[in-house]
User: Fold this.
Amino acid sequence: MKAFDRAFDAAAHRVLAWSGRHVEPSRAPWIDALRAELELVEGGGLARLLWALGGLMVVCNTRRSIVSRIWRSLPAALRFSLFGLALGVAGVIDIVWSNVIVPGHESDSEYQGLYLALFAGLLVYFAASGFVAARLGSSILAAIVTGLVTATVSIGIALLTFIVVDNLFLDVVMQQPDKAHGFAHSGLASARDYVNQGNVLGFVTAMPMAATIGACCGLVGGLLADGLGFRHAAAA
Assistant:
């Protein structure tokens, strides 16, 4: 037991030493206060280690404050669109991979479970964008706008990617069972006209839906951050 006590005690001193090296200078007195009181903590080495972990909290709060200041220093357009652009890039890679590089030949009906999971994941991502925006000190309105822009930018990039892929790789795309079946029953003479008609219709109908869903998810994320107190802590 004494060996464990000494090990915990040594770990407590190391934690405070590390915290002292990584904390912002303005918060250094907090670490000094923790270090000064360390030897007075009763309950043995484990209790002192738990006390020393307060130094890690000071460091985390400092870094959160730094990230918050960096976030607020970014242009508003970049703050609102950053999450959407990141998701859009991932979507472009996935669409090109699954439709051109390694095209599938199964019907979409075989992937209903996967599509449902993907839709749920998008809702979580849109809400997370609003949560992060609010957590880093933005207002609830900014969280809503962030969710809205995240959804419209990411979905817009995906739809534009489908338009480009369908036109550049029409022969590959038309090997998909659903597109081949749809074209055969469309009454159109051109496969290119068929895919472009579907893409334009999808773009016109999907964008307003994406904006509405993204705004609602951003609101949920912002309210969650506000309810947990993250927004007030970041703003401070």
The longest helix spans residues 191-227. DSSP finds ten helices and no strands in the chain. The radius of gyration is 26 Å. Confidence is low (pLDDT under 50) at residues 231-236.
